[in-house]
Please model this.
Amino acid sequence: MDNTQHNLLFDPSAAFWLDPGMGPPLLENSLIGYPTPEVVMDGEGDREGDGGGEGGVKRARKARIRASRACIACRGRHTKCDGVEPVCTRCQVEGKTCVYMKSRRGGGGRSKLRDQDQGKDQGKSKGKKTSVERVGVGVGASTDSLSSPGLQSASAALRSPLPRGFATFGNSSNSPEGTTVSASEIIEDGNFVSRYFEFFHNAHPIVLPRKRFLSQLQTDPESLGCLLPVLKHIGGLYTPGASTDGLRQFAHEKLSGDIPRNGFSIQALLLFSLAIHCSDEYKAAEAYLDRAIDIALEINLQSESFAWLYAECDPIIAESWRRTWWTLYCIDAVFAAISHHPNHRLQTILTNVALPCEDSVYSSGKIPEPYTIDDYDNREFAEDEITFSSFTYLIDSCRILSTQLSINIAERSPGERSLEAADAKWVNWTLYLPKCKQNLMAKDGNADETMFLAHIIANCEKMLLHRPHSTLHYSSLETRSKCTPPTHLLQTRALQKQMAFHTAKALEAINASILLFALPAPCIKHSPIVVCALALSVMAQVSACLNVLEQNEGGGQGYEGGRERIRLGLGALRAQRGVWGMAGRSVREVVGVARELLGIGVRRGVPMLEMEGGLEGYGEQSFVDMLADETLVLVDSGNRSREDICLYSMRI
Model:
């Protein structure tokens, strides 16, 4: 293999290699020399000797000997394997599943092997896949060879019971029918945590940073017993061909019983509720969220003292607890907005939790002295402009959203003064944004996903505030969408006179919401919670094209500009559809509304849309028909992976 091929398979900058018995991880050049454990292998491939030390592994202090065998993952990438059982060091760090195939050398000659093979053939059904002998997931997963009681209990908690699509631990002959998988499937399972951090973590950065998370998994895997299956479930959603139903069922089973009353359990429930919600199961998601809130209030997570009392003197863990509380508050408010509730559980809960630091600082582990919410609320009196973290501006956007919930679903108009006060909150939020927070792209070319979510919430809520009092009327078709709020608003005469003002405000918010998705960033890496906001914005843009924008008006503000924004919004929704069920339903709803209201031509005998059932029957082929003389083209986001491709609809 030449150097070019080698670099494609293994990038040393993409991971940190850890010695499980040493301190902080070190990044070295190319392949790393590992302290090789003193392991005596018998004929069956089991370990004999000292079971003491971390994970039952005793390390040689002096001589380095060649490992007797390598795991399948290291063999496949042609990288050095240290042979540590049950999980080699490289697989520990990368979060991959470590599989050792049973050696056939030195087993008593060919006659013995022939007899064994004949016995196996008699007991096997024809065409059954060969099972693997050992499986290790994460750290210390094989219970047969673990001597540490803590690791044994963590292993048992993480492995039983396993749904279909999971490999069993220990000897596969004891596995129930349907759980045996091939070695390649097991190796793929080991990538799920990596996919979580690559595609989802930056949008909701509450879990410990990747390097610190792996360290926690190594030193105290039992503490992550509930969280790890959830991360694998979410990572599996971003993995083509993964058994997502099995991953989800395993996470559900882990969270359904008695779980520890701690911050990691809250993170697990919160992230799982978010994943279930974006899979278009609102009621189930709210149940998991309620349970997370129950535990949070029970252990006093809303107090800053909790962050330090239960951080084990680790500022990174303390920061993670702060982020967990504030994300719990934000998701509680956003779920209420999406479900059109007038309030939410944490709306009136008093808190003194400090504000989170910048996401990049959190990842570095160098946590500064945090600001407080009072510091932020009095920012206008500071002598010099203070730049707060992106997370802080997201928190404030959700606080404003919380105050606006009852206004958006009121049966009667809230009155001109109430609308002015609500609008002033958003104006102030925008006025006090530093320039660096208005530009969502960082110097390294990556989008600030936290700030992106803050902006989409702000713009969508501004649109929902002003649209009911504008000329952008809700059609009867649009009101059947799950995302559309109640629209039975009785207008006052004073507000009717301000209709032009509210129309301009609504159009401004609609344009800003949709154009956020034109940023040079992979749509698939945005938070999936933005799907409903984007669907509302696109349907509002359809109303604008129908009621306000003139077809002969030039420029981006005219009808053609509005149609381009509809195409952009639909493309961004479709980019999320392969992962999240809510995006698939939103595409059907938006396409149905657009076809009917804009009079898109019917081709090849496709009937006009029947809206019964909330557009559930509106299939994918109909979307292609809707485009008529248009075509979908793939626009590479620059990362050259199919998950990072945004779909845009463009005219030929």
Summary: The chain is about 45% helix and 5% strand.
